[in-house]
C-alpha cells in the first residue's frame, strides 16, 4: 500500500531511490537525512489484540530538535483495520511530510488542487498545490482490486503539493522513465508540528473508515468507521 521504491544496486541512478524524498517520511529543508551519527531509539513497542503501536525517534537532521514517529495499527478483525501515523518534527525552516503511491496516478478527494508551474518542488513535474488546512483523501490502486486510502489531517499553515516524481524500480531499466504521484504536506518555521494521517487498505467494496476528525492538534483523533467511533490519542 505504501511500497518502498527499493534499491537499484550498482545502477548509475541508485541515489534516486536512496535519497530521503524517495521514502515515506519527513524531509527537512529538502535535504537528505544525515548518513552518520544520527542514532535511533525505539521509545515504546506495544501489542494488544486490537492495537499494535510503536514509537521511534532519531537525530536524522542536525537542525531538527525533534524527529519522532508514532504509528499504530487499529485492528477490528475480519480485515477491518487501518493505520494511524503521528509524525512530530521541530527544526529547520521547512518540513515536508512525503509519501507516494505505487500506481501511475492517484485520485485526490475533498481538496481543490491548482496547477503550480512556478513552484520548484525537488525535481518533480506536473506540480499542483492547495491549502492543506482541512481533512482530505488520496486514493490509488495497488494491484488487482486493492486500493489504498490516505486520510490527510491538515492543520492551519500547511500547504499541499501533489506531483509526479521518480518511479523506476527495475535495475534492468524495463521501467526507465516511470513516474508515480508524490504527496508533499509542507509546514514552515521552527515551531513544533505534528503531521497526522490515517491509511487504510481495502479489497474492493466500501471503505471501513468513513471519516476522520482532529479533536486536538496535540494528537487526539476521531475515526468514524462502519462499526462506530474510535478515539485515538498520542
Shape: globular
Give the low-confidence spans: none
User: Which band does the percent of strand residues land in?
Assistant: over 45%
H/E series: HEEEEEEEEEEEEEEEEE
- Terminal residue distance: 23 Å
Helix content: under 10%
Number of distinct beta strands = 17
Structural class comes to: mainly beta
How are the elements arranged and paired?
Layout: H1 15-18, E1 25-28, E2 41-47, E3 51-57, E4 64-75, E5 81-91, E6 94-100, E7 107-109, E8 114-115, E9 125-131, E10 135-141, E11 146-153, E12 159-166, E13 179-188, E14 193-203, E15 209-216, E16 220-225, E17 228-233
Antiparallel strand pairs: 1-6, 2-3, 3-4, 4-5, 5-14, 6-13, 7-10, 8-9, 9-12, 10-11, 11-14, 12-13, 15-16, 16-17
Name the features:
234 residues, globular, mainly beta
In words, what does this structure look like?
There is one protein chain. With about 230 residues, the protein is mostly beta strands. Helix content is about 0%, strand content about 55%. The chain has 1 helix and 17 strands. It has an 8-stranded antiparallel β-sheet, with no helix packed on it. The longest helix is centred in the N-terminal third of the chain and has 4 residues, at about 15-20. The chain is globular, with a radius of gyration of 18 Å. The model has no long low-confidence stretch (mean pLDDT about 95).
Amino acid at each position: 500500500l505504501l511500497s518502498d521504491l527499493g534499491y537499484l544496486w550498482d545502477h548509475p541512478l541508485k541515489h534516486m531511490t536512496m535519497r530521503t524524498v524517495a521514502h515515506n517520511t519527513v524531509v527537512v529543508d529538502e535535504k537528505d537525512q544525515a548518513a552518520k551519527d544520527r542514532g535511533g531509539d525505539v521509545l515504546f513497542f506495544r501489542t494488544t489484540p486490537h492495537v499494535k503501536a510503536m514509537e521511534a525517534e532519531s537525530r536524522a537532521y542536525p537542525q531538527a530538535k525533534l524527529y519522532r514517529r508514532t504509528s499504530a495499527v487499529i485492528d477490528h478483525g475480519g480485515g477491518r483495520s487501518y493505520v494511524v501515523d503521528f509524525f512530530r518534527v521541530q527544526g529547520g525552516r521547512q518540513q515536508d511530510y512525503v509519501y507516494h503511491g505505487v500506481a501511475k496516478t492517484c485520485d485526490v478527494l475533498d481538496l481543490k488542487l491548482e496547477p503550480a508551474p512556478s513552484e520548484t518542488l525537488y525535481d518533480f513535474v506536473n506540480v499542483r498545490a492547495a491549502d492543506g488546512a482541512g481533512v482530505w483523501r488520496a486514493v490509488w490502486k495497488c494491484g488487482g482490486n486493492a486500493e489504498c486510502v490516505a486520510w490527510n489531517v491538515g492543520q492551519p499553515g500547511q500547504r499541499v503539493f501533489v506531483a509526479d516524481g521518480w518511479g523506476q524500480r527495475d535495475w534492468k531499466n524495463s521501467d526507465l522513465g516511470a513516474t508515480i504521484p508524490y504527496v508533499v504536506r509542507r509546514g514552515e518555521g521552527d515551531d513544533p508540528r505534528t503531521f497526522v494521517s490515517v491509511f487504510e487498505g481495502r479489497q474492493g467494496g466500501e471503505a471501513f473508515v468513513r471519516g476522520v476528525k482532529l479533536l486536538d492538534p496535540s494528537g487526539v483523533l476521531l475515526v468514524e468507521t462502519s462499526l462506530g467511533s474510535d478515539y485515538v490519542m498520542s
